[in-house]
Structure formats: structure tokens, C-alpha cells
Amino acid sequence: AEILAEAVALKKSSVAYMHPEVGVCLEDANLFGRNYFERASAPDVESMEEAEERAKILAEAAALKQLASDYMHPEVGVKTTDPTLFGRNYFNRYSAPETEEDEFADERAEILAEAVALKKSSVAYMHPEVG
Question: Which of 15, 35, 67, 98 has the fewest CB atoms in 10 Å of its CB?
């Protein structure tokens, strides 16, 4: 009897293998239970890491959208409300007088003193009657 049961099971298995278009027939009532957590229509539940990553990606997408609209529409202009953006830098602006370092100032003073001495010497050479 065991041999015949095994032969029937092997025949059933070989028929299922050779004819997959027939399908599977199920009669067990436990096989028809529903899984309410992993079914296709269940609402998706995401972890905290996924939620943070999603928020980060959406923020980056919004920033890229803003940059793209700023680039494509330069006529709109820039709107600012931060009062620190309206401050002036009196030292590095283009209209500020140039400042030079101490060693350059000292060298300039020496060159000017030499030029004054040379001028005085040339005037004395050209006009000996004056001095």
C-alpha cells in the first residue's frame, strides 16, 4: 500500500511538473487565511531612517526646484529679509582707499626722500649761482 501511495504521489508530482498550465488545486481551509500586514493593499509602514531620508530628499528636491526657477527667471529678482545682508564692508569695498603694509610704506618714504635729495642736488648743479 505504501508503494502504491508513493507511486500516486510521484505521478501527481510529475503531471504537475510536465503541465504547469493546469494550476494548483487547494482544498485546505487554512490556506485561505488573510495576512493583513503583508498584503498588497496594506498601507506602507516606513522606519524612522526611511522617513528622515525621505524628508531630506524632498527638501533637496524643493531646493533644486527653487534654484532652477531662479535660473530660468532672472527677472523675478532676489528677495531678502535678513538685516545682516544690508551691512556694508568699509574696508574691502571697491571704493575704499587702498591701504598698504608698513614695510611698503617705509620703502616708499625712503624712495621719496632719495628723490627729494636728487632733485635738490640737480638744482644745485644746474644753478650754481643760487646756492
Answer: 98
